[in-house]
Design goal:
The chain is of the alpha+beta class and about 250 residues long. The protein contains eight helices and five strands. The protein is elongated, with a radius of gyration of 31 Å.
Length: about 250
């Protein structure tokens, strides 16, 4: 056998071995890719299942107060021709400021049958209560009070006893005690303790966001947002003027 023929056979064997090695690498890469894809698919299915279960649990827990209006998001007070919408968080100090400065005027206009107020409790400040979710709990308690026929009385009591931002907020026991002061009893207490309307508060807050609002208080008169200069809280005079211009 010539040296040339030997070299050719050696080169041929080397080429075959290289091809076999390349084939092995491609197979490893292919199956590795398949395995990774399967892992991702399984993880995605597990994640979706968990999300779906969470969504189902939330939907199952959602109890809308029978007295709620406006797609189940608000409580109606008054019978006047001009609609006023108040979106408020019971832990919001600016909401409390509006209540103290203009709440009496709102009540007067209601009693004079000039306005109908749609109160929308929302919970955007849970982060300000050290994990106790006071905004959600107080909104849920307000819904329970509405179901008991005492919404506005309880609404006012919540503001009169508003905890500071950054505090734990009122406990459920304290929320229940407030209810007792306005004539709410066992059914209200059970609703607070069982978090009957907490999922409703979250849904109402989602609706608030979906409508394009992101801060409280958000005040509308006849469908138009009412604010003071430079997007500040409207004074009583500004609010009253908006109601008058709307036809009250």
């Amino acid at each position: 056998m010539s040296k040339t023929a030997a070299r050719q056979r050696a080169n041929a064997r080397r080429i075959v071995e290289q091809q076999k090695a390349a084939d092995r690498r491609r197979r490893v890469t292919l199956w590795t890719t398949v395995a990774v894809v399967l892992v991702l698919v399984i993880a995605g299915l597990v994640g979706w299942s968990q999300f779906s279960n969470q969504q189902s649990d939330t939907a199952a827990k959602l109890v809308t107060p029978s007295v709620a209006v406006d797609q189940g998001t608000a409580f109606k007070v008054g019978t006047g021709p001009v609609q006023v919408d108040l979106y408020e968080d019971f832990q919001c100090p600016i909401c409390n400021e509006f209540e103290h400065s203009t709440g009496a005027t709102v009540a007067q206009l209601v009693s004079q049958h000039k306005i109908t107020v749609f109160y929308h409790p929302v919970s955007i400040l849970d982060r300000e209560s050290n994990g106790t979710e006071y905004s959600t709990r107080s909104a849920g308690a307000a819904a329970a009070a509405a179901e008991g026929g005492k919404f506005i009385e309880y609404h006012n009591a919540l503001y009169q006893n508003q905890p500071a931002e950054g505090s734990d907020g009122l406990t459920n026991a304290q929320l229940i005690d407030l209810g007792k002061t306005v004539g709410l009893g066992t059914a209200f207490a059970n609703a607070v303790n069982n978090k009957t309307y907490d999922a409703w508060a979250a849904k109402a807050t989602d609706t608030f966001s979906a409508r394009g609002y992101n801060g409280t208080p958000t005040i509308l008169v006849a469908g138009k947002v009412v604010q003071g200069p430079n997007q500040t809280l409207p004074t009583t005079a500004v609010f009253t003027q908006a109601v008058t211009q709307a036809g009250a």
